[in-house]
Amino acid sequence: MKQTDTKVCTLTISKATLQDSGMYHCTGLYNKIVLVGNGTRVIVTDPGPLSPSIIMYYPLDVSGPIVLLQCLVMGAVPSQVEIIWIIDHSERSGWTESSWTENSDSALEHTRAHITLSEDEWTEAAQIECLVMFDGTNISKSLVPGDIRLLFSCSWSAGMWLLYLGIGFFTITAAITVAVCLCRG
Asked: Helix (H, G, I), strand (E, B), or coil: what is residue 136?
């Protein structure tokens, strides 16, 4: 560690390895008092090729005037990723943040892009796309809100039919059991 003046500490790690990950603190001496900085977390990752993956989070049912969508990009350094929302072939802006999957040395950095739509925009959209630009390539994930509503309503309908069939089967089984017991008794 090298202190360049009275207020700056610099640490250079040559040929960093995964074992160099951890918290690093700057210390200094001021009027015979040792001062310790807040620290900086350093996470050294595998230098292998990065290949981002996308996960989209969206509501299955809209119960309010605002719909929040999230696009989670894993496997890429946030400073090297640009995320754009495209709704029905029209570029839209949202907000982006980066964070860590957990608070440990094995944590993974990820980027999360958000956008809010009105309920009308959500129901009228033909396609919503999260476009990730990384290292000269584009990858994307799309969703069609109508298909999600149809899937949800179909699964709801199927679930209701299964419930009705189950109740019917139980009722018939109970009736047969009672009849057999009455006949034997």
From this structure: coil
